[in-house]
Specification:
Mean pLDDT: 95
Main location: cytoplasm
Largest sheet: none
Structural class: mainly alpha
GO biological process, one term: microtubule-based movement
GO molecular function: kinesin binding
Low-confidence stretches: none
Radius of gyration: 16 Å
Number of helices: 9
Strand content: under 5%
Shape: globular
Keywords: Coiled coil, Cytoplasm, Cytoskeleton, Microtubule, Motor protein, Repeat, TPR repeat
Order of helices and strands: HHHHHHHHH
Subcellular location: Cytoplasm, Cytoskeleton
Length: 175
């Protein structure tokens, strides 16, 4: 668990290669002790996918994210918050690759699931709304992007306050 937590700290500090090494080390141990489909193993696979995404290594990130998604759908179902987080992460990978239609489809799926499970004003729902807005903006669908950015901004100001980094990121997206 220490290795896992240290990887999170490295990732949060932008030390993606070091986070990758730590996540790979944690993954080896978890696969050996708990098996490849255990929730803790899948969480580490997801974190490794994020490490690769942050490094611009999208093919590897996509493979690991797909593996996580398959395992989480099998173990947790399609509407579980962890599964929906993986769907959203895969959408972000697709957006980074310029695969906007694929990204849009997955992000909509994640948004609908989060609205249903967590509610319209939950921070994770608002995060997904912002991600979908970015996808729309990338496709030139500015009215739809603005609508979602405004929705996310209103909710984040209410839940997190006007100076929170997530709120300010939404302001930046809207601008």
């Amino acid at each position: 668990m220490v290795v896992y937590n240290l990887a999170i700290v490295c990732r949060d500090q932008g030390q993606y290669e070091e986070a990758e090494q730590l996540d790979r080390r944690a993954l080896e141990g978890l696969e050996e002790k708990l098996g490849p489909k255990h929730p803790d193993t899948l969480r580490t696979v997801q974190n490794l996918a994020i490490d690769y995404r942050n490094q611009g290594r999208y093919d590897k990130a996509e493979q690991l994210c797909q593996r996580t998604l398959e395992g989480r759908e099998e173990k947790l179902g399609t509407k579980h918050p962890d599964t929906l987080r993986t769907v959203q992460n895969l959408a972000i990978i697709y957006r980074s690759q310029g695969r906007y239609k694929d990204a849009e489809q997955l992000c909509r799926q994640a948004l609908e699931g989060r609205e249903e499970k967590l509610g319209l004003r939950h921070p994770e729902t608002l995060e997904t709304a912002s991600d979908l807005a970015r996808i729309y903006r990338s496709q030139g669908q500015y009215e739809e992007a603005e609508r979602l950015f405004r929705r996310a901004l209103e909710g984040r100001e209410e839940k997190l306050g006007p100076k929170h980094p997530d709120t300010l990121g939404t302001v930046d997206g809207l601008a």
